[in-house]
Amino acid sequence: MASVRPSIIIIAQQLLRSSSAVNILSRFKYIYFPVGENMNVKEIEKYLEKNFNKLPEGCKQCVRGEKLVLFITGICNNNCYYCPLSKKRKNKDVIYANERLITTVEEAIEEAKLCSSKGVGITGGNPLLKINRTVKFLKALKKEFGEFHAHLYTTPETVSEENLKLLKEAGLDEIRLHPTKIFNEGYDEEYIKFLCEKLDLCNKYIEDVGVEIPAIPNMEDEILKLAEAIDGISKFMNINELEFSEENYYELEKRGFKPKDDVSNAIAGSEETALKVIKEFKGNLFIHYCPSVLKDAIQMRNRLINRAKNVAKPYEVITEDGLLLRGIMIFDNEDELKEMAEILEENGIDFEIIGKNIYLNPFILEDIIEEMKRQRFPITFSAYISELYPTSDALEVERIPLITKKLRFRRRRNKGRL
Ligand code: SF4
């Protein structure tokens, strides 16, 4: 091993100039975030540039990846056929701060700090079914961060004067009502009247009041009537592109909905419905269409980048999609691991040992291996580059093998087989 040492010094010195950095990054540029046919990322960015100031405050922060998504409970008294919640969340009384399962306010604060969040979006389930918990978390976040914009999603049925007073006192800035009945049972004038009364009530207590709905294909007439009814009462209406999830797939398929393309979860016709409503609506209500690509390619990516900047270890590389790249060497033999660790240390290379693995910069790892091969030096470890989310679960999305050690089989003397 000793003869590798001088070469590694050169590798370390050359690292920043190394073209392999560029090569590796380009390998990871494939799309994790499905881009639909209709509106692509460029068009969305153009749309956002033009409309950014008109967006509700909660959306502005969300687009920039600055919102902590606080899933306060999975409990909900509705049963929307398009509900996208996963099995581990739907109707489960669990709390998540972004992707992290939590139980305490302190964990929510910690996650907000790790993501450099500037606000919180409280969602569920229905947060108002756990009003005391919602208020407790909201108050704690406001107390910890001071200026911390908070918006909350709920249904008109659970809005009450009592809840609104508690939310106002806790500092809620924005509330969004999801009128589920229209999309599950059809348009109903009585229900619209009821919704408007609830919006009026919200206006008495909360600064910004809006409506948030799914863009169900072919429901443009109902959505247009809804927009007209709430114009002047609601500050905005957000229309979300309808998406398949593991949980709602069967129900959506049963109703004849199809994916809009091979790479996206979005439903064919959903975007057309939303854009038609925006085109045909003649009132003053601000209508914002939120395509799935905006959620995935822009909001989520920005949030990942914010978190990655805070959690990346010195040897990890942040990709342009906000994921982390790390190199991993796996040793069978402890002495060989120690020797490699000494070499890295002598050359001032950042690394970490966990169990029988050495974690280090992926580009340095590639160069070390190349140099060892060039010098025909025996390689005593397996190695790969791992790409993972910077989230609390550190989900690995890709593994690129660099060195795969051959398994050594020994012939059993007695039985004469492997
Ligand atoms: S109100 Fe929301 S959480 Fe509840 S079932 Fe409908 S989509 Fe799901």
Calculate Rg over CA atoms.
Answer: 26 Å
State the domain count. Answer: 2
SSE run: HHHHEEEHEHEHEHHEHEHHEHEEHEEHEE
CATH superfamily of the largest domain: Aldolase class I
What ligands can be seen in this structure? iron/sulfur cluster
List keywords for this structure.
418 residues; alpha/beta; Alpha-Beta Plaits; TIM Barrel; 2 domains; 6-stranded antiparallel sheet; 15 helices; 15 strands; 20% strand; binds iron/sulfur cluster
Question: What does this entry look like structurally?
Answer:
With 418 residues, this protein is α/β, with parallel strands linked by helices. It has two domains: 2-28 and 323-403, UreE, C-terminal domain (Alpha-Beta Plaits, 2-Layer Sandwich); 41-307, TIM Barrel (Alpha-Beta Barrel). It has 15 helices and 15 strands. Strands 3-2-1-4-5-6-7-8-9 form a nine-stranded mixed sheet. Strands 10, 11, 12, 13, 14 and 15 form a six-stranded antiparallel sheet that branches. α6 links the parallel β4 (119-124) and β5 (149-154). α1 crosses α15 and α10 (220-230) crosses α12. It is elongated, with a radius of gyration of 26 Å. It binds iron/sulfur cluster (SF4). Iron/sulfur cluster is lined by residues 76, 78-80, 83, 85, 124-126, 155, 178, 180.
